[in-house]
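Quick question: who can interpret this fold?

. . .
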Amino acid sequence: MSGLTVSVIIPVYNAAPYLARCVESVLDQSYDAFEIILADDGSTDGSAALCDGLAARDGRVRVLHKKNGGAGAARNDGIAMARGEYVLFLDSDDALEPGALARLAEEAEKTGADVYFFRIRRIGADGAVELSQDMSGGPTSLAAEPSILFRWGDGAGGAAWRRLHPSGRQRQ
């Protein structure tokens, strides 16, 4: 397997019915060079304790508890904690397909692209999991196609982004 590492950032706000299933979809991946950052955004429904319990069970899960500021702020705070070469966003009601991270690592090793678009699964209130709409676009680079920032679908899931050094240069 590749040495690629992935930071999976999940903003959490009152997500108790969905969160464990979302996290399990990542923990069950065959590729294990990842970390999960649960950014608890001031939950009031027991999600904060659930985050702590998930982190206590598996060392690849880290938790950030913060005052409510919205999903975007939670994602940004998660990015600040991230250590992976790629950042993948999931919402707490999303689930990764089995093998998704292995496929990402394989494609990244072959192409070295800046962003990868893929399908995710949404967890419904009844626990049913549905395939999201196709986010086609394959691997690409921001230099070759800067318009990818404008065609990204609704929500933050369905893409893995290469992190940049603080200097703004790509990691090698």
Notes: Confidence is low (pLDDT under 50) at residues 131-137. The beta strands are 6-12, 34-40, 61-65, 86-89, 94-95, 115-117, 121-123, 129-131, 159-162.
